[in-house]
Fold:
Amino acid sequence: MIGYLEGTLLKIEGDRILLLANQVGYEILIPSIIMDSLNSISIGEKISLYIYFQQTERQPKPVLIGFNNEEEKEFFQNFISVGDIGPLKAVKAMNVPISEIANAIEAGDSARLKQLKGIGDRTAQKIIAALSGKMDRFALSPDEKKSETYRETDFAKSVLDVLISKLGHKAADANKMISAALKRNSAISTAEELIDEVFKGET
Structure:
């Protein structure tokens, strides 16, 4: 099974690319939001992709689907665990950042999910039912993930635990609240100061 490929970009055509790796050309399907990130790469340049490999008795021809990182691949694997969403449908549906899809799922926002290509009302409801509560770690944008360095401090982690376990905030919301508080006051050095600043921002 193929899980990762490095090679030379030979061609981009529609929703797929041709990648030359070890003298073999691999045709790889790319979700449109990931394809957007390849626009800055020229033909002939080296690229690397994490690969989801699909081959079944009903579909004996192997299908390779490429992602920039393991998180995108893991999100995809969660997404296709929902009934009625196969790999090919998921490739078409992933036309916005995974953080936006994850936030819509956690918020129960079926209207937002219906804006994904090929997703109707019934499927949107199935996605929410199957994945709600499992998407928090995908719900942060890249900028918000960069700000997560605060987690390395014990006092910030304890405040995060309080917001989630005792006050009932979702992990993505709690992360945003702490990030905003630390952005407003970078001199915070204790859990008490941090939680005070968090609640100032909520008033």
Summary: The chain has three domains: 4-67, 71-138, 142-202. The longest helix spans residues 171-184. The chain has ten helices and five strands. The radius of gyration is 20 Å.
